[in-house]
Amino acid sequence: MIDHLKQEFDKIFHESGELRYFFAPGRVNLIGEHIDYNGGYVFPTALDVGTYLAVRKRSDRKLRFYSENFPQMGIVEGDLDDLAYSQADDWVSYAKGVLYMFMEEGMTGDKGFDVYVFGNIPNGAGLSSSASIELAFAVMWDAVNGFSMDRVTMVKLCQRAENEYIGVNCGIMDQFAIGFGKKEHAVLLDCDTLDYEYARLKLDGYKILIANTNKRRGLADSKYNERRQECETALSELQEKEVVSHLCELDEAAFNEASHLIKGADRLKRARHAVTENERTKKAFRALEDGDLPAFGQLMNDSHVSLRDDYEVTGKELDAMVEAAWQEETVIGARMTGAGFGGCTVNIVKEDGLDETVKRISQRYTDQTGIEPKFYVVTTGDGAKELT
Ligand code: GLA
């Protein structure tokens, strides 16, 4: 990969000088959906696909960005002294947003750079290509300036870039999973305290299969913010009588006792999802530690049902894909993953006969929706880092 990046960098920027290389992965969440912003547990894993950067420091304060994935945009120019948001920047906004947040922390950097970017996360699949770009640039900017920022601060800074610069009110999960990924492990993250623990992904004989519905995540951002709002309102209703700082602080029994305080059937369902999903995630972590894959898979299936019926973020395509997978004996568990409203499902599937399984799921899905899906068997990988 480094040879490829070097060669392409030279072709685009026609200049020599010392290059440094960086990588940040994509992520897939195994379970714990839509609860990072409710102070719950999530259980994502970093992938071995991601965003690669080849960078050369400049002698002035100019910034030049080029992505192999968006050649039609050509070289996008910028300046360290003008990091204001511009819609025309497109993907470059994720990079500029990160530099902007460093600047807000008083870490400006003295010189600009030329950067060549290549990403191999399947496009628009909901595997966090945006958080991957953010972390790749954060690790790079930190390294070339010698800021030595600690990882938790960096992860939070990238989340702020997404919240305040891009304007998507996401939780901490994606940036954390990408900043703290570890090959062959998933990370159990307490989104309230940011305490975390790795679990070895012992999937002997099984693979993680991502199924892309190829349904564009059209309303995703606005619906996402709407769900967050519903949870916040439900929480403030509970707080009228209960001392509770976030929904996932309650276990199911405590929730059932207090739930009459929540006014509105929809809000009650949203809150119930948050509470039950948090319980499922903790159980799933234990099931994996115990090597009990069937129990793990059942919790994944239950998670989907809750996201479908209580949280209502699935939709026809995600439901069709998951139902197609549930019909297969060799599928241990299947659920939507990420924000929902399109995007991907995550499945744990027996390696034996995998191709045949995929063919049947694919056929069923297309019969139901008329859409051609895409499938990726993914491998886990490490978190964001410099490549040497
Ligand atoms: C998106 C957000 C995350 C998380 C998930 C849903 O990926 O970026 O913070 O809320 O949706 O679990």
Automatic annotation (TrEMBL):
Organism: Bacillus selenitireducens (strain ATCC 700615 / DSM 15326 / MLS10)
Keyword ATP-binding among record annotations: yes
Site annotation Transition state stabilizer: residues: 27
Every Galactokinase N-terminal domain range: 7-57
This protein's name: Galactokinase
Residue ranges of every copy of the GHMP kinase C-terminal domain listed in the record: 285-360
Binding site for substrate: 33-36, 224
Subcellular location: Cytoplasm
Record family assignment: Belongs to the GHMP kinase family. GalK subfamily.
Main location: cytoplasm
Record: residues binding Mg(2+): 130, 162
Listed NCBIfam families: gal_kin, PRK05322.1
One GO biological process term: galactose metabolic process
PANTHER family: GALACTOKINASE-RELATED (PTHR10457:SF7), MEVALONATE KINASE/GALACTOKINASE (PTHR10457)
